[in-house]
Design goal:
heterodimer; B: Rna Polymerase Sigma Factor, Chain: A; Arc Repressor Mutant, subunit A; 2 domains; disordered C terminus
Chain lengths: 205, 174
């Protein structure tokens, strides 16, 4: 067995010798350049996302102030939309699973419970916070329209409110299901694998 | 740690440990393309984590911990791409090749990879450490378990590997 193991070790350790030396100059400079380019691209994408979001919220505010008489119900509606969106976005960013947020230099048995807790935040995001965002947006929009539709006959007003509420509720329900499927496809197997690894290592301790 | 120091230390790590990290990735993931992606991810995480290195553990232990943790958390991306393939182990490959025979060398290495891919995640990591000739103490420090536990598991995993390499297919448990 000892001789066999020595042979395996010898064969094993010959792998990868000198790999990528030409590409990187052997000191990782090429890899580092690629890493930095990737980081810069990510930063640009994030800036673009933030700008698009601010533009969207700004447009809603502009449309409201330009076309609607500022009423109490309209103001509450606007506050619900803007406040709900901003609170949700803050939670959304905090719940994102980023390896850089984890203490990767910790021993795996200490890291795994923390990683699982962060992964589980994704379930709370669409299970708890996303429906609350839906409630805020649907109520906010209904309150916003309340003043605009004041001159219409009651039946027509209720029809507008009903159709918009149903349409938005359906959109949120579909969005929640998409998130749930994504969670089941990407996160559940990883959580299971991490738990299995942890149990496997812990069992004989 | 300023940017220049970070770059310098990263360069040292890359120069001295890249092959060992790559082999760890190859031991953990059977497919070379996936192992290559994992290697890049490990390097990226080492780069990002370097400012937090305080020297509480040795640099080697620290690098291996980052690599092991990245490998454990890397599965999410594999799920997104495709399920990991566990290949069959061909039974007719000789176990002890002569060193001069390059083809047999390649066959032996391929067989070793296939047998490792049939082990559990923890065992795949331990075998990689074993094949790098690490001490039990180093393995225990990296994984955060006791030296005795490492010893028990290494003995067990050696037997599994030997059985598989001899051609009696070990039971795949992962």
């Amino acid at each position: 067995m000892a001789n066999t193991l020595t042979e395996w070790q010898m064969v094993w350790q010959q792998q990868g010798a000198g790999r990528q030396a030409a590409d990187t100059g052997g000191d990782g400079a090429g890899l580092l350049a690629r890493l930095r380019a990737f980081e810069e691209r990510q930063r640009r994408i994030n800036r673009l996302k933030t700008a698009a979001l601010l533009l969207l919220l700004g447009s809603i505010l502009y449309l409201f102030l330009r076309h609607a008489a500022v009423t109490l119900s309209g103001g509450i509606g606007l506050a619900l939309i803007l406040g709900g969106s901003l609170v949700f976005l803050r939670i959304y960013w905090r719940c994102q699973f980023r390896l850089s947020d984890l203490d990767l230099e910790a021993p795996p048995l200490r890291l795994i419970p923390l990683a699982v807790a962060r992964l589980n935040l994704q379930r709370r995001l669409f299970g708890l916070y996303f429906p609350w965002l839906g409630v805020c947006l649907i109520s906010g929009l209904n309150l916003l329209y309340l003043g605009w539709l004041a001159d219409m006959p009651p039946v027509q007003r209720w029809l507008y409110h009903g159709v918009m509420t149903l349409w938005l509720a359906a959109a949120f329900w579909a969005g929640r299901n998409i998130r749930r499927r994504k969670y089941n496809r990407e996160y559940v197997p990883l959580i299971a694998a991490l738990e299995t690894f942890r149990e496997d290592l812990k069992n004989e301790e | 740690m300023n940017c220049q120091e970070q770059e310098q230390r990263f360069g040292e790590i890359y120069h001295t440990m890249r092959d060992r990290i790559y082999r760890l990735c190859r031991g953990y993931l059977y497919e070379p393309d996936e192992a290559e992606d994992l290697f890049q991810e490990v390097m990226a995480n080492i780069w990002h984590s370097l400012p937090r290195f305080r020297g509480a553990a040795g640099l080697g232990t620290w690098v291996y911990r980052v690599a092991v943790n990245t490998a454990l958390l890397y599965n999410r991306r594999l799920v997104r791409r495709r399920p990991r393939r566990v290949p069959d182990v061909p039974p007719s490959v000789p176990v002890t090749p002569s060193p001069e025979d390059a083809a047999t060398h390649t066959q032996l290495l391929d067989r070793l990879h296939r047998c490792i891919s049939r082990l559990t995640g923890a065992d795949r990591l331990l075998v990689s450490f074993l094949l790098e000739e690490m001490s039990y103490r180093e393995m225990a420090d990296i994984l955060g378990i006791s030296v005795n536990h490492v010893g028990v598991r290494i003995n067990r995993v050696k037997r599994k590997l030997e059985t598989c390499m001899r051609g009696n297919h070990g039971q795949h448990t992962d």
